[in-house]
Specification:
The chain is mainly alpha-helical. It has helices at residues 3-10, 24-41, 63-74, 81-90, 92-105, 131-144, 152-163, 166-170, 176-188, 194-210; strands at 45-47, 52-54, 112-117, 121-124. The longest helix is centred in the N-terminal third of the chain and has 18 residues, at 24-41.
Length: 220
């Protein structure tokens, strides 16, 4: 699974309803950031202080990521990661629906028409057997609450859910301080190449600066 799919699974319970209700701005930026981080992990893009750079336009084979990659490759002007985050956040519904469709095609979720649900429209997406959803949550929690050495994907998803404030909604107030200490520790680990660390951290910083303060109400 890619990071966009994993973010969605973190936010769904076994019945397909959101387990938390992050503000729409936070969800939009979480999905946009996940797409960019995944492309960075796959060596398709890189970032520096001023620009998001295309390294390789070869398709990944995953429609949602390839749609983002094609858009970046087709751009005639260089833009920084903040600009791309905003562009992708504006069409986060398309990214979300595409990722949900991919999860259905993979046999991880199934679609059922139910009452109107905030965030996911008028449909529920219950897990077929719950294994993939539990695996993602267990992997994240095991890294946060152990001395386990995370892999690059763990670094990316933990950085992202921390930057967007989703971590504070997924954990209790009792567990959050310990988890945040671990997040800071993970950020200092020399786990992946410097270029990759730089790209992930640059995207994380852009997400942080784009987030409204916790509890703020977005302008309508």
């Amino acid at each position: 699974m890619n990071l966009v799919q994993e973010i969605l699974l973190l936010l769904l319970d076994d019945e397909g309803a959101p387990v938390v209700a992050p503000g729409p701005v936070r969800l939009d930026h979480a999905l946009a950031g996940a797409a960019l981080m995944d492309l960075a992990l796959r060596n398709r893009i890189d970032t520096d202080a001023t620009n998001l750079l295309l390294l390789d336009a070869t398709p990944t084979g995953e429609p949602v990521l390839d749609g983002v990659l094609e858009e970046i490759a087709a751009s005639e002007e260089r833009s920084d990661a903040k600009v791309w985050l905003s562009r992708l956040a504006e069409r986060s519904q398309e990214i979300r629906e595409g990722a949900l469709a991919e999860l259905i095609e993979l046999g991880i979720l199934e679609e059922k028409n139910k009452r109107i649900l905030w965030v996911f429209g008028s449909r529920r997406y219950p897990a077929v057997d719950g294994r993939a959803e539990r695996e993602v949550k267990l992997r994240v929690m095991s890294v946060l609450f152990s001395d386990e050495i995370p892999d690059p994907r763990d670094v990316a998803i933990i950085s992202l859910i921390s930057a967007t404030g989703l971590l504070s909604e997924l954990l209790s107030k009792h567990d959050l301080p310990r988890a945040m200490e671990r997040v800071q520790q993970i950020r200092k680990m020399d786990l992946i190449g410097r270029e990759m660390v730089s790209a992930i951290q640059n995207i994380e910083k852009v997400v942080l600066t784009a987030m409204p303060p916790m509890g703020a109400v977005p302008h309508m």
